[in-house]
Structure formats: C-alpha cells, structure tokens
Specification:
Length: about 280
C-alpha cells in the first residue's frame, strides 16, 4: 500500500479537530489505568470537555469537546496542563507511541503467562528510546498471553505466549522467533527502530510493518504451540473480575465513581468495556 499522507491518529499534543471541539486520545499500555487517574480525567472532561471519558477498541481513553488555542488546532494550555496532571501523559515526545494492547485478563485468570511485567517493561523501553517518539500513531503492539483472545487482532509487532517463560514474536502479518519473555521488550524495541529506518520519511511513508516494501525479517514458521483464537470477553462476571460495558456516549462521573469505588486499578478492554479485577473486589 502506498500512503498519500501521514497518519492523523490523535493524541494530546496532536488532537483531532471534531465538530464539537478537540478530541484527545490518551494511550494506556495494556489498558491499565488507576482509579485516581480515571477520576482525575473525568474531572478534566467536566471542566473543559463534554463531561465524559470515552474508550476505544485499542484500549485507550478519549476526551471530546476540548478547547483550542485561539486560531489553532492545538489544545489550550490550561486543558493540556490538566491532562498532564492526571499522569496519563508521561511523555510529550512519545504521546503517540505507547500503543500496547494486551490480554485484559492476563495475570488475573488463565493464559499461559502473566504479561503484565512485559507490558511495563515494553512501555519503559519505548519511553527510554527517543527515536521511537516518531512511530506513527496507528503503530500497534499486541501481546496475547496464550489464551488466543488477541490472536486475530492485526498488529505491527507483538507476541503470543507459548508458555510461562517464552513466546513467539508477531511481525506484521507474519511470525518471528520464539524468545524468552524476560527481556523480549528489547527485541520489540529493536524491531520498531528498524521499522523507522526502513519506512523513511515524508507523506508516503508506511504507517504499518506490513506496508514495508521489504520485510523486517525473513519468513518464520508459526509454532505448533500457538493457541486457537478465542472469542471476545463477554460482559458481566468473568473469570478474573467483572467486565463492565461502556456506553457509546462514554463514562460520566457517576459511572466512573462506581468503577473506581470497586477497585484501585482497572483494565480497559478492546471490546469497549472496563474489567474490574477480581483480586481487588
């Protein structure tokens, strides 16, 4: 595929100018968000936006209806400062780069490995590499803990756990080597840097790994230990917690307060829901 423009996926520093004001997207690696941060964000939405916190199928959060600096499409400084105060924008330079999706139940129930340490290590490694701030806003890491719930999700880079200590890399639409989970973030960051080198610059630069004219790695066979795809997590009581659906118009303060009263940490899921972990119920 040949692109004709850079991607326009929004962030906090690059909001989307919608009809009702600016739209800001905040990345949540692994979908993880603390109750304190979510409460702070709904307060921002009430003061500056439409009063709701919205979720995306990439397990991120959005706030709509925000004010712009006069004559620009940039977020007004008071609103940006308030968003930074939530703790959900740890790096202005990596605003668009922290797209990391993971199996929502990982470490809570089932799966072949607890990928929460991998999510944390990958996020830290992304933030520590200045060049990765240039990743396209649609570039996505997907980490499946071996239950198969994210096996059908398209990704640029990722892995599928084959057991408690190893996983097979996903590279674009293909597969990479089987590696230990400890330290795998360095290999993923290295591949992301190779992608940036290979894509070049300008409006026609690829957004995704599978769009590169030359593959990042040679062909690797899929492991025979890979799981079968599993269906989406249903709403309601599930192993590991309570999966609460998010309405189309987002979460207002009462909804946020109910979630945050139930647990100090929550997981936004790829199915427009919030998982309240059982270990905190």
């Amino acid at each position: 595929m040949t692109r004709s423009r850079p991607d326009r996926c929004p962030g906090a520093l690059r909001p989307w100018p919608a009809d009702d004001g600016l739209l800001v997207r905040l990345r949540l690696p692994g979908g993880n968000v603390s109750a304190d941060a979510l409460l702070a964000l709904v307060a921002v939405a009430e003061r500056y936006g439409d009063g709701h916190v919205h979720v995306t199928t990439r397990t991120n959060l959005q706030v709509r209806g925000l004010p712009a600096k006069p004559g620009t499409t940039q977020l007004a400084q008071p609103a940006l400062a308030a968003i930074e105060d939530t703790g959900l924008l740890p790096s202005r330079t990596h605003d668009l780069a922290r797209n990391v999706m993971a199996s929502p139940q990982t470490g809570l129930f089932g799966g072949r490995a607890d990928l929460r340490p991998v999510v944390r290590a990958l996020d830290a490694a992304l933030l520590a590499e200045p060049a990765l701030g240039a990743l396209p806003g649609r570039f996505l890491f997907v980490l499946d803990d071996g239950r198969g719930d994210l096996l059908d999700r398209t990704c640029d880079l990722g892995l599928v756990a084959l057991g408690p200590e190893a996983g097979q890399l996903r590279i674009g639409t293909g597969w990479g080597p089987v590696l230990p989970l400890v330290g795998v973030e360095e290999r993923l960051v290295g591949l992301a840097l190779r992608f940036l080198d290979a894509r070049g610059g300008g409006p026609r630069a690829p957004w995704h790994v599978h769009e590169l004219p030359v593959p990042l790695v040679g062909p690797v066979a899929a492991s025979g230990l890979l799981p079968h795809p599993s269906p989406p997590l249903p709403y309601g009581t599930v192993p590991g917690g309570q999966h609460v659906p998010v309405p189309e118009d987002g979460l207002d303060r009462p909804a946020v307060e109910r979630l945050c009263a139930a647990a100090p940490a929550l997981v936004v899921t790829p199915w427009r829901g919030v998982l309240v972990p059982q270990e905190t119920l």
